Amino acid sequence: MERKKELRVTTRKSATSGKFQADLEPVETLGLDAFAEWWSDRSFVKPFEVKRAVELVEGGILAALKAGCQINLGLATFYPRLSGSLSARDADPETEERFVRGAVKARRTLTHALERHLKAVNSLARARASLYGVTDVETGKANVISVGRTCRGVGSNIQVVEGRDDEGVWLEKKMKRGMAKRARARVLSSNECEIDFVFDETPPSGKYFLVVQSRAGMPQDFRPVRARCEVVVK
What we know:
Radius of gyration: 28 Å
Strand order of the largest sheet: 7-14-13-9-10
CATH architecture of the largest domain: Distorted Sandwich
Shape: elongated
Number of domains: 2
Number of strands: 14
Distance between the termini: 56 Å
CATH class of the largest domain: Mainly Beta
Number of helices: 3
CATH topology of the largest domain: Coagulation Factor XIII, Chain A, domain 1
Order of helices and strands: EEHHEEEHEEEEEEEEE
Helix content: 10-25%
Strand content: 35-45%
């Protein structure tokens, strides 16, 4: 059975800013012929009529642009513009070798048309992590951490990958300037719903936040998500 194609999220790192950006991988790319067939299957319009309509609209837009017109079709506006900026307010575009080209601006009707209508199967919202509670496996005490005792956290999207510095289990203390890491646990095993860990060394007794940081199965360049709950160290 052929697997159904799905819209998916991918991440990439910007070469200029160094920040990560999220992109969508389309289900498929349709050329004019394929689009004509696709739309014909979902309407009463014949494929040749779809192609003819697109060609006529394209020809009309090009003719109007060449005449110096701006065309507002409701979904998008087509207009002529210079190829770039000028060196001064009174600079001559022709002297600075600026040329006129066509440009397209999508209207709000188009930019907002897909809101809440499309959803990627691995959308970033799915990667939200939750930690419902922690239990000492030996004593059964809830949300109590002791040195050398195996503890089990229960939640969702809390699987961590060994060997990654930014994935794992930590104890954090709330400070005036935010949260500060105090100790890192040794992860024994983990899956999407459970994670077993042990602290070989812990900070002084008191209240802390136990934090599980995971990519929830996302790629290496995806920013980890965090889940936490309040615990007591004894």
